[in-house]
Design goal:
With 164 residues, the protein is an all-alpha fold. It has five helices and no strands.
Length: 164
């Protein structure tokens, strides 16, 4: 396998791992972005949800995204021309932008926990819309990777056949 193929392999594995994390670890927790679902939890369960989001789920999500950026950084030396290098760098920058959005969600959760401790559920509800907006922004930016892959393909950098 060529070094370029190995680079593609690392990039694709990082994406597969991230997608797996998104669907199996993160997605189930997003049900509580809904006021109705959050209301169905006990006080202890709500605090557990917020704490888990802050201390485990979001950090794991950030790490998954960071792994994609590292895979792209490792792939960068195999880019044959300035346009390809620029495209991969833009995908690395996109990863950083998405990580910032995820960390912003963590900040919202922290504030939400503090407000919940003081004022209860009514004080925490308005943070759910901030979480939903942040998630929508993250999802939008995640879709932009497709444009980067299309551009790489247009520049002649296609995935090796054995990976498709």
């Amino acid at each position: 396998m060529s070094e370029s193929s190995e680079g593609w392999g690392r990039v694709l594995k990082a994406f597969d791992d991230w997608i797996s994390y998104e669907s199996s670890e993160f997605a189930p927790w997003t049900a509580y972005f809904s006021p109705e679902n959050l209301r169905d939890l006990t006080d202890k369960e709500r605090m557990g949800w917020m704490h888990s989001m802050y201390s485990e789920v979001i950090p794991g999500r950030v790490e998954s995204c960071k792994s994609v950026a590292v895979a792209f950084e490792d792939f960068l030396p195999y880019m044959p021309d300035p346009a390809s290098i620029e495209t991969v760098r833009s995908m690395i920058d996109l990863s950083a932008r998405i990580q910032d959005g995820m960390l912003g969600m963590s900040d919202v959760i922290t504030t939400m926990m503090e407000e919940y401790k003081v004022g209860g559920l009514d004080e925490a509800f308005h943070y759910l819309s901030s979480l939903a907006e942040a998630e929508e922004d993250i999802r939008h930016h995640m879709t932009l990777y497709s444009a980067g892959f299309r551009k790489l393909k247009k520049l002649g950098l296609t995935m090796p056949e054995e990976m498709t």
